[in-house]
Design goal:
The complex is a heterodimer of chains A (170) and B (570). Chain A has helices at residues 19-29, 58-70, 100-112, 133-143; strands at residues 5-14, 33-41, 47-56, 74-80, 85-96, 116-120, 124-131, 148-153, 157-160. With 170 residues, chain A is of the alpha+beta class. Chain A has 2 domains: 5-80, Alpha-Beta Plaits (2-Layer Sandwich); 86-157, 2-Layer Sandwich (Alpha-Beta Plaits). In chain A, β2 (33-41) and β3 form a beta hairpin. Chain A is elongated. The mean pLDDT of chain A is 93. Chain B is α/β, with parallel strands linked by helices and 570 residues long. Chain B has 3 domains: 4-180, Rossmann fold (3-Layer(aba) Sandwich); 199-364, Rossmann fold (3-Layer(aba) Sandwich); 377-550, Thiamin diphosphate (ThDP)-binding fold, Pyr/PP domains (Rossmann fold), CATH 3.40.50.970. In chain B, 38% of the residues lie in helices and 16% in strands. Chain B contains 22 helices and 20 strands. The chains are: A alpha+beta (170), B alpha/beta (570). The interface between A and B is medium-sized, with 22 and 16 residues.
């Protein structure tokens, strides 16, 4: 598709049952494309932060924020500027490592990527990698030849740099 | 803060009373029995028993549209609640403030059983089901939170862009007793309806309008919702700008005014469709540029600078690109634009554009004449207009009856033309008429129906007769599902499939079976007589008017075409 881009939206929402449903439902109904979504508590009580990576053309992305703003339980929606944010994702990867040679090769890679080995069994290694999605992709490519047995990624989360913050005025 | 000990059911009714609710349309069932029991102690609220929950929801919608006050409907859990769904979706599409209250299976209760989520008898996840078709919905978890929830529901339903709100009340919450207080403040931090229009945009809009040679105003339903029809007329007269309306905006401009050019759209008035495309500046107010209104967007007002006023920011730039966006209440925006205009504009008596409007009007909307004694929709609707007082309320069903009404029945006041625009719900008009009559008991209410649509909610005849809410139903009876038959005729080479309804039922006998009165008419004179009798009648009247089954609604902009490609004469 032409003019497609990906943006990261940070939304502060009420910590109430059903909010995730209404947000997800909105995306489905209006045919917006969620690449990833992470949800968790914030420093403010009763407020949950959703970090949504969404792709589409300019017009669609404008509609995404406008339509999200209409949801009553969504308090604030901000489209984060890519040049001004820090993004991270965490991945847990279980790799097949049946012999000492493989094991040491994998451990070397993990060190280069500043990951951790968090579980070892006679047949497997589990590693934890944090970074931008690109870094995680790169690491996964390295692991593929060994055999990725299981993979869990959190999806992207993000904060803007410096003093600027997204907050609800109390 | 003072509190009172009472049950959730009483708290609910008390909160509704405090919101000024005098009428509720509904049907009871097991999971809402405590509320109905409490109704015995709340004589100020009149409960009107519908015969199907869809009828109750449409009646609440009609009530809201006729009065501008929210309409309320009740239903039980499960099928009661799901039967409301069409009515709620309808209200959502047309931005109508309907408050739906549903019973729900207990969230806790006897033998410490928690029934929600256990697939209990008559359980349906109505919150999940109605999330995409309500402005807001909420399941209360305790009696204490009921007044706050009701107040928030009314606030959300009636402010900003109005819309339906559903409150789901588990049965144990209705029965439980709690300390209740009613006057808590409403503070919804995620909901701030737009305030005043932005001065810079107002200035830009005024400048465009002052420089315009061929200004056209397009009024949508938002003008009616905002009660901004006077402000609209003032600006139109100052600028000598013709006013077109969208289907939902019908009634925003008295249609006999010299500057009124009628509805735009697929079955719009050719005058409106033509002049709109000639505009150099378009002031669109309270409209979402729906596909049925604009036709093919590539040919929609190509030369016009567009000013778009809407209270819903998401509507701006959604369907068409605009030059001046104004996010505000239509009334506030129009007042601000007028104040700006009046500083520089002088009242004009004539302009070349006004001459153009007048000439086009004589060509495209020739004066009415009684052409034939045959029963023709156009003529019937013109006759009906003459028989009805200015403030009479007309509702319509959906299909040909609706489009003929839009084309030929002239609305003279706001909130006197009530129809299902966005969702296009057959069966809406009759229960909506009952709702409108309940809100405005001293005015005449007429449902212009087709035989196909009327059948869909005809059971509400029982409600209108037994609750003593007399309305008039005019069935334009062509024995077919007329609009789809027309499409099969025009676009599917007359391969008629599943559109024939035949002569069943006999609408006079049907009316009589419910205790209403029925008339068959065979001529325009008989039609006139029947309508006059209906207006005097103290019971609901059904007038069965046979019309030609092959009568098309024209003019028409074929699907996918631009407004400039309209076919057929007005």
């Amino acid at each position: 598709m032409e003019n497609q881009k990906t943006i990261v939206i940070a939304a502060l929402v009420e910590n109430k049952p059903g909010v995730l449903h209404s947000v997800a439902n909105l995306f489905r109904r209006r045919n917006f494309n969620i690449e990833s979504i992470t949800v968790g508590h914030t420093e403010q009580k009763g407020i949950t932060r959703m970090t949504i990576t969404v792709s589409g053309d300019e017009k669609t992305l404008e509609q995404v924020t406008k339509q999200m703003n209409k949801l009553i339980d969504v308090i604030k929606v901000t489209s984060l500027e890519p040049e001004n944010i820090v993004t991270r994702e965490l991945a847990l990867i279980k790799v097949s490592a049946p012999d000492a040679k493989t094991r040491s090769d994998i451990i070397n890679c993990v060190e280069v990527f500043r990951g951790h080995i968090i579980d070892v069994s006679p047949e497997t290694l589990m590693t934890e990698i944090t970074g931008t999605p690109d870094k995680i992709e790169a690491f996964l490519n390295l692991m593929k030849p060994y055999g990725i047995m299981e993979l869990a990624r959190t999806g992207l989360t993000a904060l803007s740099r410096g003093i600027k913050s997204i907050k609800i005025d109390e | 803060m003072s509190t009172t000990k009472m049950t959730g059911a009483n708290a609910l009714l008390e909160a509704l009373e405090k919101q000024g609710v005098k009428h509720v349309f509904g049907i009871l069932g097991g999971a809402i029995l405590p509320v109905y029991d409490a109704l015995c102690h709340h004589p100020k609220i009149r409960h009107i028993l519908a015969r199907h929950e869809q009828g109750a929801a449409h009646a609440a919608d009609g009530y809201a549209r006729a009065s501008g006050r929210p309409g309320v409907c009740f239903a039980t859990s499960g099928p009661g609640a799901t039967n409301l769904v069409t009515g709620i979706a309808n209200a959502y599409m047309d931005s109508s403030p309907v408050i739906a209250i549903t019973g729900q299976v207990p969230s806790a209760g006897v033998n410490s059983s928690y029934m929600i989520g256990k697939d209990a008898f008559q359980e349906a996840d109505i919150i999940g089901i109605t999330t995409p078709i309500t402005k807001y919905n909420h399941q209360v978890r305790s009696a204490a939170e009921i007044p706050q929830t009701v107040n928030a529901a009314f606030y959300i339903a009636t402010t900003g862009r109005p819309g339906p709100v559903l409150i789901d009340v588990p049965k144990n919450v209705q029965s439980e007793t709690a300390e209740i207080h009613f006057n808590g403040p409403i503070d919804i931090r995620g909901y701030r309806p737009p305030g005043n229009p932005h001065p810079l945009q107002i200035r830009k809009a005024a400048e465009l309008l002052l420089d315009a040679e061929r200004p056209v105003i397009l009024a949508g339903g938002g003008v009616i919702t905002a009660n901004a029809t006077d402000e609209l007329l003032t600006i139109a007269e100052l600028l000598l700008a013709p006013v077109a309306t969208t289907f939902m905006g019908k009634g925003a401009m008295p249609e006999i005014h010299p500057l009124s050019i009628g509805n735009i759209g697929m079955h719009g008035n050719p005058l409106a469709n033509k002049l709109l495309l000639e505009a150099d500046v378009l002031l669109a107010v309270g409209t979402r540029f729906a596909d049925r209104a604009t036709g093919n967007l590539d040919t929609f007002c190509p030369e016009a600078k567009k000013i778009h006023v809407d209270i819903d920011a998401a509507e701006i730039g959604k369907n068409i690109e605009v030059d001046v966006p104004i996010v505000a209440d239509a009334k506030q925006a129009l007042i601000a634009i007028y104040e700006r205009l009046i500083q520089q504009a002088k009242k004009k008596n004539d302009t070349p554009w006004l001459q153009r409007v007048k000439t086009a009007k004589t060509q495209l909307n020739p004066p009415e004449k009684a052409e034939t004694t045959e029963l023709k929709p156009k003529q019937l609707l013109q006759v009906l207009r003459k028989l009805l007082p200015e403030d009479a309320i007309v509702t319509t069903e959906v299909g040909q009856n609706q489009m003929w009404s839009a084309l030929y029945f002239k609305a003279l006041k706001p909130r006197t033309f009530i129809s299902s625009g966005g969702l296009g719900t057959m069966g809406f008009g009759f229960p909506a008429a009952i709702g409108a009559k309940t809100a405005c008991p001293n005015r005449h209410v007429v449902d212009i129906a087709g035989d196909g649509s009327f059948i869909m909610t005809e059971q509400e005849l029982a409600c209108s007769v037994l609750e003593d809410i007399p309305v008039t139903v005019i069935v334009l009876n062509n024995g077919v599902l007329g609009m789809v038959a027309q499409w099969q005729r025009m676009f599917y080479k007359k391969r008629y499939m599943a559109v024939k309804l035949g002569k069943s039922p006999d609408f006079v006998k049907l009316a009589e079976a419910y205790g209403a009165q029925g008339f068959h008419v065979q001529s325009t004179t008989e039609f006139e007589k029947a309508v006059k009798a209906a207006l005097k009648n103290t019971v609901t009247t059904v007038i069965d008017v046979p019309i030609n089954s092959e009568e098309d609604v024209v003019p028409m902009v074929p699907p996918g075409c631009g407004l400039n490609q309209q076919v057929g004469d007005y």
